[in-house]
Write a structure and sequence with these properties.
Alpha-Beta Plaits; four-stranded antiparallel β-sheet; 2 helices
Length: 127
């Protein structure tokens, strides 16, 4: 059973959000090699939605534990001390479709709805 973890992150500045995006692009696969997919969706100048998928709940839980320990040990150097979580969601992936294409700067729109929140329109630029 594949699992998706979705987090909404808010940064104090555009520069910090930009830095995080670049850092995930360059290092995400090294930070979380267990992840099947890592996606950063820029929802606003200072907001990002981070989506990770895992092969199983067990793997997702092991990653969460490992990253939590790393954040505790590295304190101020940890990204977790440089943003605010707006919300975090987790769920079973019940449907998935992916084309085997390489995208060069295409724009997509994604709607995210959470309990008690209005829909959020998100522009996703894949490069």
């Amino acid at each position: 059973m594949r699992i998706a973890r979705i987090r909404s992150l808010e940064f104090e500045s555009k520069a910090l959000a930009d830095e995080y995006e670049i850092d995930v692009k360059g290092n995400g696969q090294d930070w979380v090699p267990e992840a099947e997919q890592i996606m950063v969706v820029r929802t606003a100048i200072t907001s990002i939605i981070l989506l990770l998928t895992f092969e199983s709940q067990k793997i997702a839980d092991e990653v969460t534990k490992r990253l939590g320990l790393w954040a505790d040990e590295n304190g101020p150097d940890s990204w977790s001390n440089r943003y605010t979580d707006n919300f975090a969601l987790e769920g079973l992936i019940t449907a998935h479709h992916s084309q085997t294409k390489t995208y060069v700067k295409h724009t997509f729109f994604l709607a995210v709805v959470s309990v008690g929140m209005s829909p959020i329109n998100v522009q996703l630029n894949l490069t």
